[in-house]
Write a structure and sequence with these properties.
By secondary structure, the chain is an alpha/beta fold. It has helices spanning 16-28, 40-48, 72-78, 83-92, 105-115, 151-169, 190-201, 227-252, 256-264, 266-275, 302-317, 320-330, 343-348, and strands spanning 4-8, 33-38, 57-61, 98-101, 126-131, 138-141, 175-180, 205-211, 222-224, 284-287, 293-295. The protein folds into two domains: 4-124 and 288-348, Isopropylmalate Dehydrogenase; 129-278, Isopropylmalate Dehydrogenase (3-Layer(aba) Sandwich), CATH 3.40.718. The longest helix is centred in the C-terminal third of the chain and has 26 residues, at 227-252.
């Protein structure tokens, strides 16, 4: 039986046109069923502009939309008929196996927490970013869901990102590093030092502290950090990739020799651009939730949406949450019970 994915078709900066195009691309490359959730009249109009609408695309009407600048907690409380709330309602009812959204990240997390809840032993769900390196992808967690963390949270991030890396990239024992200002175990702030101690005691393949400059070398498969640091790394990496491509373009245009060199190496430049394009990974998985969720960039293109849908399907197909629970059970003695933060406090800390 084909997997069924729900797409918040009203989320993102580019409107439902890009969402619909991405969904159609996804069904053309897979056997997935996709439900678009949003203003039905508008979505039908967008679908009508495509020559080959698919019978595996379905529509669910939602009369409300959560704006990108709205308070996440207020939005999910006041807008029960929003596209993001309806998407998670479908997931809770078992009518879809995953949710993809490029809308308000805080509202996405808040809705997931309210309607699906946390996995057992997970106190802070987190967002896992995927970065290209010289040798293969590295999963960084958290990249924006939790700006204030305790060592136990970073420890859980390491477990969840390891499980994701295992099922999505086929790694048996992903190498786990802790992002710090030095490789020595004594380096870093109090949070990093305590997290280092927990990770050392765990069953994870922990290799120790890793400096920021080593992130893209490919010698680590999972990078652990709090959401404040992770989001800075994410935005810095995106900006750097765009700046490098822009600078290359400027240099190429300066002389005939440079233009000639570009023509000779055009394939290499195209491959490089594709390699550093966030759209290739589609979006960032929200891990620690009783379900499968992908949070996409607000500027996501149709290609990014397509890839996010395919990754969401892989998460569901490979049962990433079952693997997370297995790894958590191995280190249950290191997990400390604590008072769970309120939904409002978690959602307020999410970076869009």
């Amino acid at each position: 039986m084909a997997l069924h994915i729900a797409l918040d078709a009203m989320g993102g900066d580019r409107g439902p046109e890009e969402m619909v195009s991405g969904a159609l691309m996804a069904v053309s490359e897979s056997d997935l069923e996709i439900t678009l959730i949003g203003d039905q009249v508008r979505l039908e109009a967008v679908l009508a502009t495509h020559d080959t609408p698919s019978s595996r695309i379905h529509l669910v009407h939602a009369s409300q939309v959560v704006g990108m600048d709205e308070s996440p907690f207020d939005a999910i409380r006041r807008k029960k008929d929003s596209s993001i709330m309806k998407a998670f309602a479908l997931h809770k009812e078992g009518r879809v196996e995953a949710v993809v959204s490029a809308g308000n990240s805080g509202a996405t997390l808040a809705a997931a927490l309210r309607l699906l809840g946390r996995l057992e032993h997970v106190s802070r769900p987190g967002i896992a970013g995927i970065f290209p390196t010289l040798k293969g992808p590295v999963v960084m967690m958290d990249v924006g869901a939790n700006v204030d963390c305790r060592a136990e949270h970073l420890f859980q991030f390491g477990i969840m990102a390891t499980a994701f890396s295992q099922v999505l990239f086929g790694l048996d024992r992903p190498r786990v590093g802790l992002l710090s200002i030095g490789e020595e175990g004594g380096k870093g702030n109090l949070l990093v030092k305590k997290s280092h101690e927990l990770l050392q005691q765990s069953s994870l393949n922990y290799i120790g502290n890793v400096e920021g400059r080593d992130t893209f070398q490919g010698d680590v498969d999972v990078m652990v950090c709090d959401g404040f640091v992770g989001n800075v790394c994410l935005k810095l990496s995106e900006g750097l990739a765009e700046a490098v491509l822009g600078m290359l373009g400027e240099e190429i245009s300066k002389s005939f020799k440079a233009k000639l060199g570009y023509l000779l190496a055009k394939d290499a430049f195209v491959s490089f651009k594709k390699r550093v394009d966030y759209a290739e990974y589609g979006g960032a998985p929200l891990l620690g939730i009783r379900g499968n969720v992908i949070i996409c960039h607000g500027r996501s293109s149709a290609v990014a949406i397509k890839n996010a849908i395919l990754v969401a399907a892989e998460m569901a197909r490979n049962k990433v949450n079952e693997r997370i629970l297995e790894l958590l059970s191995l280190d249950h003695l290191l997990l400390q019970d604590e008072a769970l933060p309120s939904l409002e406090n978690i959602a307020a800390g999410v970076s869009s």
